[in-house]
Amino acid sequence: MIRIIEIKENKIFFSTDKNLRNVLITVLDENFNNSVIHKTNFNELNNGVTYFIGISSVIVPSLKKPYLKVQYGEHVYDIKFDFPKTDIKNYSIISNSCLGWRVYERFNQSYNSPLIGNLIINDDKFLRMCEHIESYLSSEMTFGDIRPNEGFKNITGSDRAINNNLPNTDSYPVSHHLDIDIHWIHTRRRTLEFNNDGVFTFNENEKNELIPLNEFKEKWYRRVKRSKGTEKICIWSSSEMFNLHGNWKRKKLLERFKNLPHRSIFLTERKEEEYEDEYHIIKYLPEWEGRHQLERDENGGLKWDDQQRNSEIIYNIIREKFL
C-alpha cells in the first residue's frame, strides 16, 4: 500500500510498505470534475524509500478536494488529502503588483490584503502608501481617470500598463485612494482548466464575464477589514520598479524603504544595496548581477522579472525571518 507521509507546501511525500513495480500515481480534484492535475509513472517503488510528487504552487489554492489515484497491477484505490495552509493571519502583505498575489499562493492562505491582482505604477507613491498604509486603507475608494504619471508614460508612451496577453487592458478600471491610483488589470474572471496530461491554464479571455466595479469595491473593503489589526509586510523588488531612477533617487527610495514602520523585503541586483536589520531586508540576488532598469518590454515591465521565482524567495524570507 502507498501511504502519504507528509505534505509540505506543494509537495506530497509518500512511501510504500512493499516493493512495487509499474505504479501510476495521479493527482485529481473533485471540484475540477476529477481532472488530471498531475500524473507520474514509477517503474519501481522500494519499501523504506521516501518519494514525492510536486504540484505547481500557483494552483494549490484552487485545489479544495484533491486526492491520489494509485494504480498498479489489479490494484486501484484513492487517497484523499489536503494541502497545508501556513498561518499568516497576523500579517498583511502590501505589494505594488501581482507579486503579493503570488506570495499568498505559496502560503495557500486567504488574502489578508486588498492589494491583489493590481498594479501601482508610480514607485514614489507606492512607497508613500507603505509609509502611511493605514491612512490609505481607511480612505474612500472611488473610480476615475488616470492621473498624470510622467515617470511611467516616459517609458511606455502610455498611461496604462498594456499587456497583450490580457483582454481589455486599454479600458481596465482605475481606483483612487487619496493621491494614489491603483490599476485593476484583471478585468475578467479567471478560469482554471486542465487537459488530460495535467497541463493547466488560467483563462482570462473575451468570453469570460467582466468583473463589475461594485465587486472590485466589495473585495477591497472586505479585505481591508480582514487586514485590520494585522502587522504589515511590504514587499518590493527592483524588477518591479515601474519608473526609471537615477542613483541618487534610487538611494533615497531605498533609505525610505529601510525606515518603514513595518516589516519590509526588497530584492535587488546591486550587491552594495544589501542590508538587514530586525524588520527590514534588502536581499541581493547574484543571478541579477549586471541587469538594469532599461531592459524593458513594450508594456513597461522589466524583461528579467520572474514573479514565480521572486515569490519563492520572499516566501522563504517571511517564513525564516518573521514567522
- Summarize the main sheet: 5 strands, mixed
Percent strand equals 25-35%
Low-confidence stretches: none
Number of domains: 2
- What is the spatial order of strands in the main beta sheet? 8-14-15-17-16
N-to-C terminal Cα separation, in Å? 36 Å
* Total of helices: 7
What characteristic shape results from the CA principal axes?
globular
The helix/strand series, from N terminus to C terminus, equals EEEEEEEEHHHEHEEEEHEHEEEH
Number of DSSP-assigned strands? 17
Strand-pairing-aware structural class: alpha+beta
Instruction: Give me the Rg, rounded.
Output: 22 Å
Tell me the helix content. Answer: 10-25%
Describe this structure in words.
The protein has 323 residues and is an alpha+beta fold. The chain has 2 domains: 2-80, Immunoglobulin-like (Sandwich); 91-321, no CATH class. Helices cover 23% and strands 29% of the residues. The protein has 7 helices and 17 strands. It has helices at residues 99-107, 123-131, 133-138, 150-156, 213-227, 247-258, 307-321, and strands at 2-8, 11-16, 20-29, 35-45, 51-54, 66-72, 75-80, 91-94, 142-143, 174-177, 180-183, 191-194, 200-203, 231-237, 263-268, 275-276, 280-284. It has a 5-stranded mixed beta sheet, covered by helices on one side. Strands 4-3-6-7 form a 4-stranded antiparallel beta sheet, with no helix packed on it. Strand 6 and strand 7 form a beta hairpin. Helix 1 (99-107) packs across helix 7. The longest helix is centred in the C-terminal third of the chain and has 15 residues, at 213-227. The two termini are 36 Å apart.
